[in-house]
Design brief:
Layout (H helix, E strand, L loop, with lengths): L11 H50 L7 H13 L18 H30 L11
Helix pairs in contact: 1-2, 1-3
C-alpha cells in the first residue's frame, strides 16, 4: 500500500486523523455550547418562578388590589408554583385565623420557602446540565 504525500508532508492517514480530531472537538464544543445555554435557561426559569412567588407574597402583604390584572397574575401563578406543599391556605407553616396578619404570615412564610426551594433546585439543575470546564492540555 502506497501512501500519498500531501502538501504539508503528512500522509493521508495522518491528515485524516487530524480532521477527525478537529470534527470531534468541534462537535464537543457545539454540544457544550448547547448544554450551557440550556443550563442558563433552566436557571432563569427557576429564578422567575421564585420572583413570581415573592411578588405574590408582597401583593398579599401590601393588600394589593385583587382586581388589578398584574396582582391577579402574580397571586394566581404563585398559587400554582407553590407545588401544593407551600400553599398559603394549608402549607408547611400555617397561622390560624382569617385576619390579614395571619394571611400575610402564611403567604410570606410558605411562598418564601417555596421561592428558596425554586432557587436551590434551579442552581442544582443548572450545575448538573452545564458542562464542566475542561482542564488545559499538558505540554511537554
Amino acid at each position: 500500500m502506497t501512501r500519498h504525500a500531501t502538501h504539508a508532508g503528512e500522509s493521508a492517514d495522518e491528515q485524516a486523523d487530524g480532521t477527525s480530531t478537529d470534527r470531534t472537538a468541534q462537535a464537543k464544543a457545539a454540544a457544550n455550547a448547547v448544554r450551557a445555554r440550556v443550563a442558563q435557561v433552566a436557571w432563569i426559569l427557576c429564578a422567575l418562578a421564585a420572583l413570581v412567588l415573592a411578588a405574590g407574597a408582597l401583593c398579599i402583604a401590601l393588600r394589593a388590589n385583587s382586581d388589578n390584572s398584574l396582582v391577579k397574575f402574580c397571586v394566581d401563578n404563585a398559587d400554582r408554583l407553590d407545588l401544593g406543599v407551600f400553599s398559603r391556605v394549608d402549607g408547611v407553616a400555617h397561622w390560624k385565623g382569617h385576619s390579614h396578619a395571619a394571611l400575610t404570615k402564611n403567604a410570606l412564610a410558605n411562598w418564601g420557602l417555596a421561592a428558596v426551594i425554586w432557587l436551590v433546585a434551579g442552581r442544582v439543575v443548572e450545575r448538573i446540565i452545564r458542562p464542566r470546564p475542561s482542564a488545559p492540555a499538558k505540554k511537554g
